[in-house]
Write a structure and sequence with these properties.
Layout (H helix, E strand, L loop, with lengths): L2 E5 L3 E2 L5 E8 L8 E6 L5 E7 L6 E3 L7 E6 L4 E6 L8 E7 L10 E2 L3 E5 L2
Parallel strand pairs: 2-11
Antiparallel strand pairs: 1-3, 3-8, 4-5, 4-9, 5-6, 7-8, 9-10, 9-11
Length: 120
Amino acid sequence: QVQLLESGGDLAQPGGSLRLSCAASGFTFSNYAMSWVRQAPGKELEWVSGIYADGSAIYYVDSVKGRFTISRDNAKNTLYLQMNSLKPEDTALYYCARGYGSRWSLYDYWGQGTQVTVSA
């Protein structure tokens, strides 16, 4: 069965860095676009970044452009999110999701999430 397992979330100071990973299994990872989505306490889901199956196109929400970098290693079936210059407003539960697009219905599998907390 399809599984997405995130890791790497932690407590970080403002200005610090974290690297999230998402290990995928149960499907041909290299055939699918993937995304990172986050949910801050008391707020709705927010799409953060997406990457095409072959990595040929990458997109970010404006609030993370220049600070976050999405990447993937199709040989290792793993999706990454390098997060630099972290801000308190980046605090959220970060999900790895299979899919990309403007409607949540385009995302068919989700991980359980990894918590990122940015605080001094």
